[in-house]
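Narrative summary of target 7.
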Amino acid sequence: MAQKFGGKYSPGSSSPEVVDDRRVDAAGARANILFIPGVVLVFMSLGAGPVGLMLALVAGGTLTLAAWLLREGLRAAAAYDARKVARKPAVPRKMMASALTGIGVGLAAMTGDVGLFGSIIYGVAALGLHVAAFGIDPLKDKRMEGVDTFQQDRVARVVEEAESHLEVMTGQVEALGDRPLLNRVTAFQSTARRMIRTVEEDPRDLTGARKFLGVYLMGARDATIKFVELYRRKPDADARRAYEELLTDLEQNFAARTERMLLDDRSDMDIEIKVLRDRLQREGISLN
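Modeled conformation, tokenized:
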């Protein structure tokens, strides 16, 4: 079981551990600003004739696709970095974005008078600068020592599924523009992510948490989608109260399950210490 014994539920802890689950968009302005060059290129090439305009359109589309891939790649890399057990991204979005940026810049350069060789140089330079600025995608799975690969793969799949459900909930409630309700959903998600972190610290806790991170979060996601559809058509105080009561029940159950997992871990540790003490005494080593 999880081996972190100094956390929020450990004996001797005077208050629960405060966890800040606020997340900043990993893409941010530095990625979003790269959507601009493609648009500017097309507008500046409107009077360049049919060939120049066609090159500009292709180059602009390529640069825009590269910017989108970069944004998603940065978010995937941030999620990978935030987890203790994670699988590498299935699609290397950042590296694809670098390649497309090089192609787009090379095509854009062809609309000028630098020639084919000059366009290739510009494209290669853009590719290199893009890699230097944003890096490449994670190339291997993140694992913990001392835990078998199969178990860690199971944890990675469950965590990815759980985070996906939580992200859908956030997106749905954000669409309502209701800050108090979004804060309530965020509070529940903070409790759910404490369980996720507990499982990540020791994948052997997965058995007790799998139903919570799978079935229960899927139910919370579906309930959120249905509530938002109803509330968007007609704000209903009773529906809102029922939804918030559901979040409260889920939050209490997640917190209680996480506490039991951590208390069981403490019991396991006490047993291990007792076994070790008895063994040392049999070897004639006194701990007094």
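Confidence is low (pLDDT under 50) at residues 1-22.
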